Amino acid sequence: MSFYNICAQYDEECLKEQLASKTETDVKHTLAQEQISPEGFLTLLSPAAVPFIEDMAQKAHKLTLQHFGRTITLFTPLYLANYCTNRCVYCGFNTKNKIYRSQLSYEQVESEAKVIASTGMKNILILTGDARAKSSPEYIKACVEILNKYFPSVSIEIYAMTEQEYASLAESGVDGMTMFQETYNEKLYPVLHPSGPKHDYRFRLDAPERSCKAGMRVVNIGALLGLDEWRHDAFKTGLHAHYLQSKYPGVDIAVSLPRMRTHVGHFEQTCVVSDTEMVQNLLALRIFMPRAGITISTREKAEFRNNIMHLGVTKMSAGVSTEVGGHAKAEDDSDKSAQFDISDTRSLTEMCEAISSQGYQPVFKDWEPIFGTL
In Å, how far from its chain's centre is CA 83? Predict the structure, then answer.
């Protein structure tokens, strides 16, 4: 059985009715529990829980200190290529969008690595569009071998792969994998992904589990908040994380909470997620998954990121560019080919200062392979 069988038990109408049925008494009962069930998680995501945000914040803060201390791990993305064969209606890399397409040579990858490493960054996340003919597993593997010289931790956020391909990348030095399902709504999914390899809902949904089997140390999942009713996607994301954490206890399971941002293209967002709703999502997830990492990226504004550090966040990006080769480019060399616009443009140094000012410790590296050379 895969997570698909669990996810399929919750259709959208069923979730809508269950969320609407939750009461103030249900919320109080859930908050009194030490460990909550999926039903309790749904209760904390419901409209009935909104008046209890402060109570949820206190509980989430306490659980985060218990499991992670006052720490925030930092990372930055490195875009290797923006060629893509998909037509995701909400993405700047949509193959129909008229943007400048490029791919880094191995020499350019090394140049990017040197620039990023000079800032002190130790965790890097490499990204490509979904174009196997351009960004083949062999190309990605060669880039990882270059990046391993500069970074103790290299993660991937690329197209869905087979278990064997994930295992090959893990052997080459990739230690983490991020996969956004975008939306767990199986009926809406093909509308948002009309063509391209990403059209295959089931193959993408099972990708995180394949990477767990393949030996990845960290597996990070998420939904793009704003594509569908946020409470539905938030609930299924939490269920997915819970399923993976229960089945693969040796893998660090984490969740990202990305909200829609402006990008090249004309997608009209149908479900706007407010700051209060983002916080409710974060708090409910922390209470349901006390040991899961939670990432908040530079899609969010600096002030918002500062304000939610105490509420359950464990990882943040800094010094971000969403352009191919954007770290080594001069600012006026930008080719305007970014995947989306970022909100928090702070450098790594500025981000460290912000974290320290909140009484937290910025973390660059938190693990070491027993038999490795790093």
Answer: 21
User: How far is C-alpha 36 from the chain's CA centre?
Assistant: 23
DSSP code, position 270: S
- Among residues 72, 78, 121, 70, the alpha carbon closest in space to that of 348 is found at 121
How far is residue 301's CA from residue 344's CA, in Å, rounded to a whole number? 5
Report the C-alpha gap between 292 and 68 in whole angstroms.
10
Give the pLDDT confidence of 9-27 residue by residue, as tens digits. 999 999 999 999 999 999 9
Q: What is the DSSP string of 133-186?
A: TTS-HHHHHHHHHHHTTT-SEEEEE-S---HHHHHHHHHHTEEEEEEEEE---T
Tell me the CA distances in angstroms from 354 to 27, 158, 177, 199, 306, one per residue in order: 34, 30, 27, 40, 7
Res. 271: pLDDT tops 50: yes
- Report the percent of the chain where pLDDT is more than 70: 95
Q: For residue 374, is pLDDT > 60? A: no
Neighbouring CB atoms inside 10 A of 231's CB total 22
Indicate the residue type of 204.
Answer: R
Whether 307 shows a pLDDT value over 60: the answer reads: yes
Name which of 352, 372, 358 is nearest 75 in CA terms: 352
Task: Give the residue among 125, 93, 88, 294 at the shortest CA–CA distance from 201.
Answer: 88
C-alpha closest to that of 155 among 87, 10, 252 = 252
79: closest CA among 339, 276, 330, 299? 339
Residue 147 scores a pLDDT above 50: yes
Determine the Cα angle at 140 with ends 139 and 141, to 5°. 90
pLDDT of residue 302: 96
pLDDT on residue 267:
77
| Backbone φ and ψ of 171, nearest 5° | -65, -30
